[in-house]
Amino acid sequence: MPWTNRSYPPSMKNLPKKVREKAVEIANALLDETRMDEGIIIATAISRAKDWAANRGIDTRSTSSDSRSTDVKQHGTDRYVIPYKQDSWAVKTEGSKKVEKVFKKKEEAVKLGRKKAQSSNASLTVQTKKGKVQSRTSYNPNKRARKSP
């Protein structure tokens, strides 16, 4: 059943108008082109419409006060806690050659790395003294990375 901008799936009701219109357009195209289950079509259309909006700087957050969406389309810069010179620890930003800050205690480095990763919906990877991965945690509200023992 094709949808319109006045008659659309209930799961699209809290989307901003432009995003909902794009989701309806995508859902109708998927209905015409594929034999996918209707539920999959709706979820795919919403996701693609949010990506479309995010790539154009359009806000994808719901305007409804009762919406519980935690969908975050932006992933921040990952942080690493690494062993550093002479029994120190450093917080390093992904892709950077320089460290962000150096600490005497590993716990202090982990605390800062966690704070930075959480504030940017990124991941924190903590290494052992020998440079192996001790743990990895994702702070994206939609995905949790597996924690290594």
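That was protein one. Protein two is written in the same sequence-then-structure order:
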Amino acid sequence: MTNLATMEWKANFSVGDTKMDDQHKGLIALINQLCGEDEIDVREVLEKLQEYVDIHFRDEEALLEKIGYPDLDKQKVEHETFAKWFDEQLETYRNGGGSDTIRERVQNYLRTWWIKHILFSAKAYASYLK
């Protein structure tokens, strides 16, 4: 399995909301668990990711609705796309997909997700929070 460098939170990742930033930091921690060389309980990390997806997407969508964010529907579509993909990965894992294969697939997808969703889509709503 390819081990990638761990990610670190940077101030410019902030969307300007403490709760969202804390949740995003939590995602970095989960990505880093998948990227490390240490043996991990893949099932446990996947369960934590499922919990993250459920809580974060709900919280973020509620926040965006509260502030009247005009691209809320786009955010919802991105969330639904991610949730569907993640459900497929969980199903693969539950049906005997190898831990290393799932671990690598999820860590790679999450890194891409971080760039596309967090650094662009989520940052786009930062100005509406002021």
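The mean pLDDT is 88. Keep this in mind for the problem set.
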